[in-house]
Design goal:
The protein is an alpha/beta fold and 332 residues long. The chain contains 14 helices and eleven strands. A five-stranded parallel beta sheet has the order 2-5-8-1-9. Strand 3 and strand 4 form a beta hairpin. Helix 3 packs across helix 11, helix 9 crosses helix 11 and helix 10 packs across helix 11. The longest helix has 17 residues. The protein is globular, with a radius of gyration of 21 Å.
Length: 332
């Protein structure tokens, strides 16, 4: 049980240790205009040891943001372009026979990096998608009879194109659930788009991203995120939100019952708690408040709620359901 003095000391420690967040935002702001929401969600995934699924139309700087983040941390970056003819060995690696040495050698695939960009993940068949699962969940890869641990930090950032559905393979629910966050990337506003045009025309995009954070600082930040204090009332608030997706009738939300085919799994509760702690850390706080949970709720829950045909017929999406739940659940 943490005392008020413990929380005060932790708060001071986090205020000092979380300084690298602002340095990262500033450095990425050199080449990324707008999209602060996406940048913050990538940092939450990084600090919470969770993977991020980005959904948005082409041209919204998803790839540029991820590559710039890797440069700012000076971490190893791999980009895997998912296509229908991709094989699992193209992702994790394979065994190659060496005639001179008369033995099989392991050639590691692009998964052996710190930041993995899985571009258009829904274009690859299920066999390739499942090859990514072990790496995402277990932080290890098995090639032949040998298992290799992946270096920390390890973050999979997958992009998904909501248009051009021809020749795509929907991600199975079991795999979607392994992404901590699903972030919907939106268009920039008029002022931001004008700045983007000027930046591109004047060639300002070519300035290199400098390393402003060390990998050690990121690892230390991840350890501190786990230590952020969460009161039992906030834990109960998280459980109420998740349980309302499973048993809406118990929370005066009977109208949602015919719209939800399945609710959030226990992984939803775990990730909502971790993401709320990371959100508090990024706001230089050593304790979680309900607003942290609300801020991150849609990103954690939107891909974990199954919709019925009735919901789709009424043009109701998971975000509308989350809004209704947040309005109804009592805030501690």
């Amino acid at each position: 049980m943490q005392t008020a003095e413990d929380i005060k000391l932790l708060n001071e420690k986090i205020q000092h240790a979380s300084g690298f967040v602002e340095r990262l935002r500033t450095e990425l702001g050199k080449v990324i205009i707008g999209q602060l929401y996406m940048v913050d969600r990538l940092l939450i995934g990084l600090l919470s040891n969770g993977h991020v699924l980005l959904e948005g139309v082409p041209g919204l700087a998803k790839t540029l943001t991820i590559k710039s983040l890797a440069d700012a941390v000076n971490a190893r970056f791999s980009r895997i372009q998912f296509t229908p003819d991709l094989l699992p060995a193209d992702v994790v690696g394979t065994m190659i026979y060496n005639q001179q040495r008369n033995e099989f050698l392991i050639r590691k695939g692009p998964i052996f990096a710190n930041f993995i960009l899985a571009d258009e993940i829904n274009r690859a068949p299920a066999k390739v998608q499942s090859a990514l699962l072990e790496a995402m969940q277990e932080r290890q890869v098995t090639i032949g009879e040998e298992t290799h641990k992946l270096e920390q930090p390890f973050l999979v950032l997958a992009t998904q194109n909501p248009i051009e559905q021809e020749g795509t393979y929907n991600l199975p629910e079991a795999q979607v659930d392994r992404f901590m966050l699903k972030v919907v990337v939106t268009y920039p506003d008029r002022a931001e788009e004008q700045r983007i045009i000027r930046q591109q025309v004047q060639g300002e995009m070519n300035q290199p991203i400098q390393q402003v954070v060390s990998v050690q600082e990121i690892i230390q930040g991840k350890d501190l995120v786990r230590q952020v204090y969460m009161d039992e009332k906030v834990e109960q608030y998280i459980i109420d939100i998740v349980f309302a997706t499973r048993f809406p009738e118990q929370y005066r939300l009977e109208r949602l019952k015919p719209l939800i085919s399945y609710g959030g799994s226990p992984r939803a509760s775990i990730n909502l708690a971790l993401a709320a702690k990371a959100h508090a850390f990024m706001n230089k706080r050593g304790f979680v408040i309900p607003d942290d949970v609300k801020a991150i709720c849609k990103d954690v829950m939107r891909h974990r709620i199954g919709l019925t045909y009735e919901a789709e017929a009424e043009n109701i999406n998971s975000e509308k359901i989350i809004d209704d739940i947040l309005k109804t659940i009592n805030v501690p």
